[in-house]
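Friendly challenge for the regulars: who can give me the structure tokens for this chain first? No prize, just bragging rights.
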Amino acid sequence: MQLMSEKGAARGGLRERKKRATRAALSEAAVRLAAEHGAEKVTVEAISAAAGVSVRTFFNYFDSRDDAFVVVDADAGARMRRAVLEAPAEFSPLAALREAMAAELAEAEQQHELWRLHAKVLHASPHLLARGVGAHMAAEADLADAIAERLRRVGVPDATGPGSEPGPGSGLYPRLLAAVAGAAVRTSMDHWSAHQEEAVFLDVFHEVFTLLAAGLPAPPA
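First reply, four minutes later:
Bragging rights claimed.
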């Protein structure tokens, strides 16, 4: 679940911050209502009332009721793509992706309960889960595109490997890196969830990416 961090919300002007806050409020209201009552029983009117906005405002942000359960922060992918492309030239692709993800996950500890509820809502509804998987795959493909573009900008015109087709994100390396980074985030969250009293989430996150950068060496005996 991609929830907007306050750090992310601080970017842009006042109007943009208000828009992000309204979208976040609608998404949170939708998830909490669905977790309590079941997604099929939640109406657009109920979501709008819980968020303190009109139904018309709801449809300024979402095309349908189900989008509010699945598309929590439609701008998160664009922010991460931009961060990957604008990261310092000396950053490796993995480091650029790590920093882009870390910026989006800065508030993960405070948002953990909502993440858990979101997972509950999706898993309770097969069609929402399918849409959630589709949204995740699309976001991963966008990150792969950004990685491929970054490689081309630093003079790696073809980082695709044998047998791949030309085009943004079509290469093996960009796709693998985006997929591995997504798995790293999930692993970080799962581990932190089981050890909340012992660790800070972003410390776990950075430790996971340090292991990736080192090539996943076996732990010392």
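Confidence is low (pLDDT under 50) at residues 1-11, 161-169. The first helix runs from residue 6 to 9. Your move, everyone else.
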